Structure formats: C-alpha cells, structure tokens
Amino acid sequence: MAYAILLIIGVSLLVMPMSVPRFKSDAAYSVLNTEWNGLSSFGKLLYKSGEITPVLVPYDSLGLGKMNGTLIVVGPDVDFSQREIEQVRAFLESGGTLILADDFGTGNELLEGLGLPQRFSKKPVTGMTYLKNYEFPVTREITDDALSTGVNYLVMSRPAVVLNAQNPSVYTSNASMLNGEYGAFPLMDVVSYGKGRVILISDPDIFTNALFPQNEPFLRNLIGSLPEKTFYIDEAHHADFNPYSTGTIVIRRAVNRELVFYYVLFIAVLAFFIESGLFGLLLDKLFALLGRFFREERESLDEIISRLEESGLDGDKLKKILQEIETGSKLGGGHGR
Q1: 3-state DSSP call for residue 238?
Q2: Which is higher by pLDDT, 321 or 330?
Q3: Could you report the per-residue pLDDT of 215-256, keeping only the tens digit for each?
Q4: How far apart are CA 160 and CA 203, in angstroms?
Q5: Cα-flanking dihedrals φ and ψ of residue 295, to 5°?
Q6: Is residue 231 a contact partner of residue 219, using CB atoms and an 8 Å limit?
C-alpha cells in the first residue's frame, strides 16, 4: 500500500497542472489587454520570436539610452518628456530600432523632438476598397518584398497617413482620398537615425486583436525583418493603463514519459529490495562491519597499553582508569553519565 501511495504522489507531481498569476488591462493598445482593442495576440507573437519586456515607467527611469533591441510604441496618448526623447535619441544612435505606430495620438510630439520631418496626418484617409465597411480599408500596396511575402492584404481602421515620407514601403490603395486629394498615400515609412532606424506606421489598429487574424502574416514579416529580437513594448504612454490581477492561468504540462518510467522503475526496485529481505541483509552487513571496526579500535588500544607497559607503566592501572572513564564511576557511579 505504501508503494502505491508513493507511486501516485510522484506521478501526480510530474503531470499535475500548474497555476500562475494572470494580469490584464483594459487600456487600448495594451499588450495585457485581451479584448478587441488590445495587443495580447501581437504580444504572444513577440514572445515566440524573442524576449519581450513591457515598459511601465518613463524611459529615463528605465535607462533606455543604454539598452539594445526594438522599442515598440503603439497608440501613445501620454506626452513624451524632453528627457524621454533624449533617451530615445541615444537608443537610436547606438543602433536601436523604434517602431512608432500612431494616428491621432502623441506620436508627432516624439517625431518633432527627434528632429524628424515626418508627421502623422491629423485626419484619416478614406479608402474605396474595404473589408466590412469604409472604416476598415484594405491595401495590397506593399513594395517591400520581405514584408509582402504571404500577405494577401492589410486591413486598417480609420488610418492616418505618413506625411513627408522618405522611404515608404506600404501605401493605401490607389482609390483613396485625403483632404480632397485622390491617390495612394504612405502608410509606413522607414527612416535611418544614427546607427539605428525608425519605422513609422500610421495605423496602430493593425496590431489589435480585432484585426490580428487578417494582419498576422504582415506582422510576422515585420518582426522577422528586425535585426534585434529583444522587444520593449511601451505601456507607460497609455493614459488609462491599469493592470490588475484576474486570477490564475492553469498550465497543463505535457507528460514526460521517460521521467515517469524511471520513477515507476525506482518504486518497483525499492519494493523488491525491501520485500525480498535484501534490505535487512544489507543492514546486517553494515552493523557487522561497524562492530568489526570498533573491535579493531579496541585491539589497537590494547597494543598501545602494551607499549606503555614496556616503558615501565602499570598496564592494569591504565585499564582501570579507562574503565572508570567509560562507566563514569568517578563521577558518581556507573549511570552512563
């Protein structure tokens, strides 16, 4: 019965589910938001591609300027301080990459602080080709082969455009209108900055959970084109960012068949070893060995006394003294003290 209990407990520990805390936010464009306007699906894609760290504090507190990797800022609506802009500048000049996806937030403030001429338009572009209705225009105008591989189209939601673009790689469809003008307008621009680069995307909604199923091939290509797979995703510039715990996530672990096999084998060997009497035999051998050791120690003591007798000492008195020490008779009687 005892062996069965050991077996059940051990195997259960190997295969039982593990619970971990789960955190969530309802802020738009937050990687911790699992609703339609969150970026949790995009966050999982980043996690599978490299290391992801949410940025919860201002850049100067983080020490961004001394870090390497890719800073991802999606839909910012909190002002960037001058010290933060200086940190972004140092980050870019040392080789970092900035992905800034915005339409009508505070992205232009960061572009102005960095001294870049590009701006996000203050009005959305209207497309004549769309997915559900005119608020969800689509485009196939992707000029960069690395970004267009496997992409049928890109779905947006009331996008802005990149004004003063220098190296655009994604455009709206030709049937688009902005401020009374028709044509194809830049949606994405790549700008070199120091040893790094800035990637501007004029619609943060392409990253959201609502549009992720359609845009996943494009987003996967975008991540694959990045030189660094260390990602810092900005949460500090979301005004209503409020992470809270919603309980736990249960992770069901896959059974390690080899580990289970060895554990069952160990229990079986242990049971055989004890029930067959080998364990008792081993204990008898061990006690016999210890007894022999102490007898040898006693013989060695007799040899020492013999040598002392040869030098003129009384051997009987020495033995009597040793016996009194062992029995404690000189301490009040032989009571084992």
Answers
A1: coil
A2: 321
A3: 999 999 999 999 888 999 999 999 887 665 444 444 444 555
A4: 6
A5: -65, -40
A6: no
Indicate the burial class of 90 (C-beta count within 10 angstroms; 0-12, 13-18, 19 or more).
middle
Angle at the Cα of 278 (from 276 to 279), degrees rounded to 5? 110
What is the chain's Cα-based Rg? 38
For β-strands 126-127 and 176-178, DSSP reports them as: antiparallel
pLDDT higher than 60, residue 195? yes
Beta strand extents in 257-305 (DSSP E only): none
Per the CB < 8 A criterion, the answer to whether 146 and 113 are in contact is no
Instruction: Say if CB 127 and CB 137 are below 8 A apart.
Output: yes
Adjacent-strand bridge partners of 20: 249
Identify the residue whose tokens are 């160990």.
266
Whole-Å CA distances, 162 to 15, 71, 271, 321:
52, 19, 74, 103
Q: How many residues does the chain have?
A: 337
Residue 256, C-beta contacts closer than 8 angstroms, at least 6 positions apart = 14
Q: Give the highest mean pLDDT range of 12-16, 155-159, 267-271, 283-287.
A: 155-159
**CB–CB of 83/60 below 8 Å?**
yes
Contact status, residue 87 vs residue 113, Cβ threshold 8 Å: no
* Distance spanning both ends of the chain, measured CA to CA: 43
